[in-house]
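ok so I'm stuck.
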Amino acid sequence: MQFDYWGKTFSNGEWHHACHHCLDVAAVAQALLRANPRWRTVMALLSPATETQTENLLLFLIACHDLGKLLPAFQNLDPALGKRLGHPARGGPHHTVLGLNLWNIVRPGVDLELPEEDLLKPLLVATLCHHGTPEAFRELSRRDIPRSTTEDAREYLLEVAALFPLAPFGDDPDFTHLSWLAAGLTILADWIGSNEHWFGPDSQWRGTSAYWPKAQEKASRAVADLHLKEVPPSPNSAFHTLLPHLPQNATPGLMQTAVMNLPEPSGPELLILEDLTGGGKTEAAILAAHRLMRHGLASGIFVGLPTMATANAMYDRLSESYHALFDTPDASLVLAHGGTVLNNDFIASLTHDTACDNGRSDGRATCSAWLADNRKKSLLAPCGAGTIDQALLSVLGARHQSLRLLGLCRSVLVADEVHAYDEYTGTLLKNLLTFHAAMSGSAILLSATLPRSLRQGLVAAWTKGRELADAPCEPFTAKEEHFPLMTRVADGRTMEQPVDTNRALNVTVLPEHDESAMFETLCRAHRDGACACWVRNTVYDVLEAARVLTEEYGLPTEDVLIFHAAFTGCDRAAIERKVLARFGKQSCAKDRRKKILLASQVVEQSLDLDFDLLLSDLAPMELLIQRAGRCHRHERQRPPGYEQAVMHVLMPNPAPDVAGTWYADFFAKGQYVYPDPALLWRTARLLCDKGCLRLPEDARELVEGAYGNREIRTPQALEEQTKALAKQLSDRAAANFVKLQFDCGYLADSNPWGPEITAPTRLGEPSHGLRLIRMENGTARLWADTGSGPTMPTCLRSEIRVMQSRVTEAVPPPTSPRAFDDLVAAMPDKGKWCVCLPVRETAPGIWKGKAKNGRGQEVTVRYSETSGLQID
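replied:
not stuck anymore, here's the structure
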């Protein structure tokens, strides 16, 4: 080579040769493939060539991933170094675009056994555009590409090709599907290969063959230190071995037995497990996932849930037992959602020791800090729990989505509460199943209340993915009415297997058409020494009910607990722990006596709570069934008069002839949460007719009837309310617009790409963080600060998510503005992506601040650690 080319610079002034860096990254990719047989298998299944041909081609292209750094436009990003190395001053686009241009000019396919450029394009884009999203080709002036650089690039490519022999490919090989894995592998290898801990400066170029063994040695050490080697599953499949958190006298439930009796899998599978709330579906899923891992069809498990609260609960359950799934003590368990820094147990599990402490002797969960420092890497962990959003981002045009896809494709995807998603998120979930199936993954879906049409749609999405993988598929029509039910979809065969149950949900339903009856019921429960919960449909209704109970009915404030989403991160985590302690499985009579919980939907899914009496606002049938599952969930001694499970449901009267505003007139704010009045009327009518929720006997009748799949005559005025249907169609169209198409490959011009904000996992009004700052005695400190100062975790623990229209900016503090400004300036993010709100204590425990809403009006913001946020 005639010139030196820098690729990485260091704070001490040293630099690393660009071609050395390219070889570092190729060596890391090679080490990752050798350490992860599952990725090699997926690579071979996605490729039209042999495994050896495919690996050599991928490593060759990854060794070219930073080809664009040889051009002057990049070399002069450090003007002094670029000039010292003899590069002419030039400007230009990002080095990924430069690399595509340089490749087009060099055209190594003329000298090497490479497929034609059009056929190779998906892999070229996947490897050369390794910064998170694909780029389109933009032709540069030849003046910006010196002849000497072109010659050096050609010489380097020929040397690299000698390392990875490129055998001839067949006619018109299609690398479209392989491009998804190639993109993720390149990103991961580049992140590791850019870490100076393993790859220090080496600026003296001596040729590819001289440096390659050094790169391989460094890469092998890095992959080992980061514990990115595939973790083998435990060979033991005994029930109590895999589920050590269960009592020793526990016996497998019938759904768990059905899973354990499944035949050996011969390929990827989709399992849909429908069973009662509290029926052990999660444990059945763990058993099923381990079965797939044991037969080489996966090397990990990721459990996706609807909310952060349910993900936290799942993390707690897995932390007790996940070590049993693996044949090594150092497997990482990751918690993946936007509030992980709020989970003290997860933070305590992080280890910066590259050996991951070789597993803790006390059996507690551990997680590599490197995996946990970025949610984009979280799916690389062998075991994880998180919100389903983390997986959904892998099939949206969000930055680095292919890295998430790479991690997920070697794990069993377990999605819990699959009935809980709206049309938009549900459409994305189906697309995720298509991608996962196409990449030969396996999935397990859990639900207590699944409409037949949704089961049909989930299976169809999975089958579409297997068809993309050229697997044999058969038509499927969901017919089985039995509940519980296991649906199993394997290549070429689908079965619906009825499963018996020794559990039952038998909850008497008492319709109430007046709020006063709900308050009187709670007061009576309090007098009787019972514990009760009222699940309300909005945060406003939760707070108003708490005010009425304490101020108008005189219940002691210490007996009325509030739990909803409008708390700062630190307070919400504390309340969640308190709620679980008061009403969880391990709670005792003393903990529960006379306690009333007023909560929003945060309690209806995956939290193991048990109440003597349940109350609820009217909601869709499947959610009411979920809520009812929190009434008499466990066997325990109940107060006299509460021996039978009862749920009071506040609802407007579901008369045969009602107005179109039937629900909106009764629930002024709830109408925006549940916008389908026809669904709600059918739910109310069924509850009034039945007088109880009796499962499993009535499960199908209740769910299918609510969704209009049974002969229930809905009032004409509600049928004419087309808003709900229009919204469903609109949301589905929005999801179809933003979702990626597997068959289009990792190309800029064939899929929608953009920053994550343009590809949300859920629809709704945009929100941002409201970061509370306490102003007292002339000082300013973050709400969650207990002495650590304005660290990023403390900043996030001090935030509440609010709709942008409700609070757009804060009104500066009237006193001590300097202290406020200095605190914001000291924050790691300078408060750029949130609203920093100064609040003062105006009464014991009540803090207030001033802000402006989206209409420019000044509003008062009130907050307390027991009631949460209120905006007047």
